[in-house]
Amino acid sequence: xxxxxxxxxxxxxxxxxxxxxxxxxxxxxxxxxxxxxxxxxxxxxxxxxxxxxxxxxxxxxxxxxxxxxxxxxxxxxxxxxxxxxxxxxxxxxxxxxxxxxxxxxxxxxxxxxxxxxxxxxxxxxxxxxxxxxxxxxxxxxxxxxxxxxxxxxxxxxxxxxxxxxxxxxxxxxxxxxxxxxxxxxxxxxxxxxxxxxxxxxxxxxxxxxxxxxxxxxxxxxxxxxxxxxxxxxxxxxx
Length: 238
Hints:
Blueprint: E1 2-6, H1 10-21, E2 25-30, H2 40-43, E3 48-51, H3 55-68, E4 72-74, H4 83-92, E5 96-99, H5 105-121, E6 128-135, H6 145-157, E7 163-166, E8 174-181, E9 188-194, E10 199-205, H7 210-223, E11 228-230, H8 232-236
Parallel strand pairs: 1-2, 1-3, 3-4, 4-5, 5-11, 6-8, 7-8
Antiparallel strand pairs: 6-9, 9-10
């Protein structure tokens, strides 16, 4: 594949390493130093684009890929207020879009475990649920997209919760998400069910960025010759 990297920070560079290991070619690298090179004509030279940019740029990047008729894999979080618009545009114009809040295989297995646990805990209202996430101090958005995905999956299964909020306070109908930023932590997510007598906790802790980068490359390979909207559930057949 010929690949355009939209966002060439630490994740972009890690993705490039894996692309080269798997025999692919990066033909366009976009970061804050060369935004003028991001044009439909330049994008059109690639087979797929992978976006790990910033929340303020993600929506425009995706729409430009649609304009250039280039499949787009998005790993940027913090822009999901426009997610429905992106998916509707993708479907109506027969384009190709893959989104995940987290591309790690382990995290997506964690998502499945989180959903299962929430279904079980729906029967036990004595337990309140909260989420804590910790990331490196360069991460732009809070809470993380992964924490939001975990919260939304719980809300879909747990009758007593109808929203999430960035807070450490305990609230009856809201899932509190606590976000920490420190050092070079790749990502730690913990879901806790707490009662007066005990607590139940599940945690995923990333050792490096490599797992996220590999997942993004696998998504790009998966998206070839496909139209529509896809996620890690489609890739992993969960």
